Amino acid sequence: MVEDKSLAPTPTSASGPDAGLAWTVALAAAAAAGRLAAAGKAVHCDVTPDGHVREIPADDPNAVIGWEPGVGWKLLISDADPRHGLLDLYLPICSASASTPMTVGHLGLSLDGFIATHTGDSQFVTGHENILHLHRMRALSDAVIVGAGTVAADDPQLTTRHVPGPNPLRVVFDPSRRLTAEYRIFHDDSAPTLYCCAGTLVDPAETHLGNAVIAGVDGTEAGPAAADALRLLRERGCARVFVEGGGVTVSAFLEANLLDRLQMAIAPLIIGNGRPAIRVPAHPNLRDCLRPRYRVFRMGGDVLFDCDLTSSGRRDDERPETPPVARII
Q1: What does the alpha-carbon distance between residue 293 and residue 309 come to, in Å, rounded to a whole number?
Q2: Does residue 186 have a cis bond before it (omega within 30 degrees)?
Q3: How confident is the model at residue 322 (pLDDT cuts 50, 70, 90)?
Q4: Buried b (16+ CB within 10 A) or exposed e, 64-95
Q5: Is 50 exceeded by the pLDDT of residue 2?
């Protein structure tokens, strides 16, 4: 279970040798999770310079991470270690495997709750550190999902070009089939691409949109289509799925209870009005609203809330316990 953090966010510096060392550990941990989950034993590990997890004795002071069956990775270094912040953020995602899959949503939004202007301009609401975070999340994930609106507005590549790590399967979620083949994601060969639209809108002889493989999903309604798309990805062996945006798509996965974690990066920016972030059916009473457990991380000028949406992470009390107000910067 994720514990609430202090109001002082954990820094996650994206640059420097310590960040590089921590990221090597994260990639190695993600790659080893399936093997260790299948082995079902507790181990302490360090990571070799070439990026492989190595099991070491439990009393070895060089242990960096440890695997616990049924729990996943845990940090074995102190809070003072400069690698701690970055690893603390990513190890829960690295712990996912075929037996314990995970779906994570992410949105970057302004102080007043918008992800873009009315014209769709969203590059970039959040800063450089959060952009690096998106690329890291892609590298840790088997598949990254974006909606039709994000493709139309941003024409994204969805690769890991800013960080070391593999490119994920790119998934365009477009149940009502709004998009044409003009966007580069349907033509470049940086990574394989899946185009998810309603099966009723696919001709029987149709297999591709550009270079992207067409996958028919259940209808044009966002919730059932999202569930069917996630089912297809699980069948393809995608244990870690990252729903990168936009607001409509992340909201569809959230409303359908398909997200295990939700990351909200809040930027020191006031847009005034624009395209909203999360939109789900409203509750009349605050006590009925979802108030998940969370962790807080500082990313440059942005603040990331990493929320646990699993049943064990839902709070029954009215408000999360927090320390007194404190100056953090």
Answers
A1: 8
A2: no
A3: low
A4: bbbbeeeebbebbbeeeeebbbbbbbbbbbbb
A5: no
CA dihedral 251, 257, 260, 266 (to 10 degrees): 20
| Contact yes or no for 8/328 (Cβ under 8 A) | yes
Q: What is the pLDDT of residues 268-295, one digit of tens each?
A: 999 999 899 999 888 898 888 888 999 9
Contacts of 103 (CB under 8 A, 6+ apart): 230, 241, 242, 243, 253, 258, 259, 260, 261
Domain boundaries, the chain: 10-94, 102-281
Q: Is domain 102-281 given the CATH code 2.40.30.100 in the classification?
A: no
Specify the residue for token string 């006031």.
270
Does residue 7 surpass a pLDDT of 60?
Answer: no
Rounded to whole angstroms, the Cα distance separating 43 from 53 reads 11
Report pTM: 0.90
202, HSE (Cβ side, Cα atoms, 13 Å): 21
Shortest CA distance to 131 belongs to which of 274, 35, 15, 8?
15
